[in-house]
């Protein structure tokens, strides 16, 4: 499989090159040259396969022969070593829980898969040392830190916005040490992401360091997110209604991977991009005008993105045509007040505790189902509510049980370096 630059379709690289480089020249994203179609027989018999077997069939064409079958299966086995249950909420709504991994967030899958792939390429011995440079609005940092911890030949530098991630999220990315370094940025997530993109195009840094990114802009972080939708469909296939998935959306890698799975033949009928007040895509679907804006801080902080990088990939899936995209994608946005109200109502009515991101996904699904009652809807719970402890406990008026892994992290000492602008990031990397 070759991957081309979305800025220059003549620029093509291998899967390994796309993973190692992270970004194409000019800060562009890579996209697969072909989207394989899987057989209807495979989808009709998903319940006969294990999650690892499903993931292997879904991803193997994108990897090609660059990772041998045994090694790829081993990477998947390690990456998918936990459950992905669809939990019923009401007669026509369920939630896909993606928080049963090591850092209690959906990004454990992408981070683990990428760490496995990059570690495999480093072991082959022709790459030298690699520096993974990543921006986080919350959960990416902890997942990447955990996935790459102790991986030989790889250093990880994580940028996160000061005061704009939860205490637990901060602890997960600042307490591990070893080959993980956290940089606390005086700014928002977009500032962090802009610094990362600038570093990739900096010739001086490129001459000294071999950089790659572990954000969902990297194909090895983005592609495995399609697994969630296969695993969910396996549990939902016997339902006779049409299926809709509501995805709390920030940088749009997760929902883009779901739409890619649909292109591969997975029988999902509709997607809902549920936004907080950072609603550039909601506005685009209303106006056909894509206008990025400076992000605003919300209680669903992992979605505080004013210019979602992966939306260009979604547009590529639809040949940059608005009408076919609008047929498959709806979008709604919600305030913090509406998000808190949803958390409270679902706890009271269904005795289920949502995190703020899942609550935004639930709200989007509710609005879609009100107009489309013939669907069964699944919203994604992308993080354990304990990661937003103060917000959730205040809303529901009771304590949330803290898992042992989180209690251990909270007792560790935070270690980070504070920076304010790109020159300070560059100085840090060059040293």
Describe this structure in words.
By secondary structure, this protein is α/β, with parallel strands linked by helices. The chain has a domain at 85-104 and 221-400: Rossmann fold, CATH 3.40.50.1100. The chain has 20 helices and 14 strands. It has helices at 15-21, 40-44, 51-63, 69-79, 107-123, 139-148, 167-174, 189-200, 203-208, 219-222, 227-236, 253-263, 280-287, 311-317, 322-328, 336-350, 356-371, 389-396, 404-410, 422-430; strands at residues 2-5, 8-14, 30-32, 86-90, 93-97, 130-135, 154-161, 180-185, 211-212, 242-248, 270-275, 329-333, 375-381, 417-419. The strands form three sheets. A six-stranded mixed β-sheet has the order 4-5-13-10-11-12, with helices on both faces. It has a five-stranded parallel β-sheet with strand order 9-6-7-8-14, sandwiched between helices. The protein has a three-stranded antiparallel β-sheet with strand order 2-1-3. Helix 16 crosses helix 18 (389-396). The radius of gyration is 20 Å and the shape is globular. The protein starts with a strand and ends with a helix. The model has no long low-confidence stretch (mean pLDDT 93).
């Amino acid at each position: 499989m070759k991957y081309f630059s979305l800025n220059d379709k003549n620029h093509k690289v291998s899967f390994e090159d796309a993973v190692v480089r992270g970004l194409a020249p000019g800060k562009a994203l890579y996209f697969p040259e072909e989207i394989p179609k899987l057989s209807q027989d495979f989808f009709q018999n998903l319940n006969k396969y294990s999650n690892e077997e499903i993931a292997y069939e879904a991803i193997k064409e994108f990897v090609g022969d660059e990772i041998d079958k045994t090694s790829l299966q081993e990477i998947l086995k390690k990456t998918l070593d936990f459950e992905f249950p669809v939990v019923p909420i009401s007669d026509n709504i369920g939630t896909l829980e993606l928080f049963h991994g090591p850092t209690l967030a959906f990004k454990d899958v992408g981070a683990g898969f990428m760490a496995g792939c990059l570690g495999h390429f480093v072991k082959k011995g022709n790459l030298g040392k690699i520096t993974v440079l990543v921006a986080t609005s919350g959960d990416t940092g902890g997942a990447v830190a955990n996935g790459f911890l102790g991986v030989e030949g790889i250093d990880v530098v994580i940028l996160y916005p000061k005061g704009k991630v939860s205490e637990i999220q901060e602890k997960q990315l600042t307490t591990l040490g070893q080959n993980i370094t956290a940089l606390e940025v005086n700014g928002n997530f977009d500032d962090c992401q802009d610094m990362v993109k600038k570093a990739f195009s900096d010739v001086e840094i490129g001459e000294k360091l071999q950089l790659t990114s572990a954000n969902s802009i990297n194909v090895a972080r983005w592609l495995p997110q399609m697994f969630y939708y296969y695993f969910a469909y396996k549990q939902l296939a016997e339902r006779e209604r049409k299926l809709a998935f509501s995805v709390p959306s920030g940088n749009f890698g997760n929902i883009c991977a779901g739409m890619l799975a649909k292109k591969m033949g997975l029988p999902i009928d509709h997607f809902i991009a549920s936004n907080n007040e950072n609603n550039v895509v909601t506005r685009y679907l209303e106006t056909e005008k894509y206008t990025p804006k400076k992000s605003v801080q919300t209680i669903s902080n992992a979605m505080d993105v004013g210019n979602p990088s992966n939306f260009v990939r979604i547009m590529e899936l639809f040949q940059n045509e608005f009408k076919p995209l609008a047929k498959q994608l709806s979008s709604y946005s919600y305030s913090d007040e509406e998000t808190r109200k949803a958390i409270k109502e679902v706890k009271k009515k269904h005795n289920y505790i949502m995190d703020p991101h899942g609550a935004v996904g639930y709200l989007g699904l509710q609005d879609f189902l009100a107009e489309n009652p013939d669907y069964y809807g699944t919203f994604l719970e992308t993080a354990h509510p304990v990661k937003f402890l103060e917000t959730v406990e205040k809303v529901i008026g009771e304590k949330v049980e803290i898992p042992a892994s989180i209690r251990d992290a909270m007792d560790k000492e935070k270690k980070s370096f504070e920076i304010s602008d790109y020159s300070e990031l560059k100085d840090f990397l060059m040293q």
